Input
Amino acid sequence: MPGSLIYNHQIFKNSERIIGAENRSFRFGDGLFETMRVVDGSIMLAEYHFERLFEGINKMKFDAVSGFNITKLADEILMLCKKNKHDAAARVRLTVFRGDGSLTDPENLHPNYLIQTYPLAGPDYAWNETGLKIDIYGGAIKVADEFSAIKSNNFLPYVMASLKAKEIGLDECLLTNQYKRIADTSIANAFICKDGKLKTPALTEGCVAGVMRRFLLENFNVDGSKIEEGGIEIEEMMDADEVFLTNTVRGIRWVEKIRNKTYKNDIAKKIFRELNRKMR
Output
């Protein structure tokens, strides 16, 4: 792939090798990442992204390192977007990981980081006119624990759910937690709507602490009612009037079908339009 990336303050061509076989992220998934949206030279919801990132860094016991801070990372993200000519609309992946070492003997606990940018079609979110067809993946669970809200590099349940969706010709798969309740999907948080009331799995249910999820929780209501956080049983989702998925890059995507259940999109479309207005 043409273009450049940034690895630990330095610019490299995308084609250059930057980590070796002893890297702990490669060997053990020892790291975390953020997927951000840049529009017209600005990082959308930057405060939310960096707050989540550094909470995860602290929880994963990385050492503090001089020069590794929000201001520096934000500046390098925007510089790379401009260099790659992606600053009008881009998807950015910022990956933070430990360096080389065995599982029990890392060389150090310093954060290494990698910034990559990819072009997006336009600055606004696009509505999916055709609703998503999804299912519930039964091959793995998303364990609700101290680390489940982190966007971890250890992504195996999501990888397998995504592969299963592709294998059976669907757009996405939901994952459940150890309590057999809905957690999230391979790349998004899930919301349901029943009788005009919105609900999404609480962070204690094992979902990733999605930035778009947080933005909706803090900035949206339906007819004066705030979005509820809690446990969502599979039967409750199947009985809902609407289901939609959210993430920072794609915004809101409505679900048309789960198995043999068909859903509407009235509330989802209303929130989608308001989201595009708020993000301008």
Remarks:
- The chain is about 25% helix and 30% strand.
- The two ends are 30 Å apart (CA to CA).
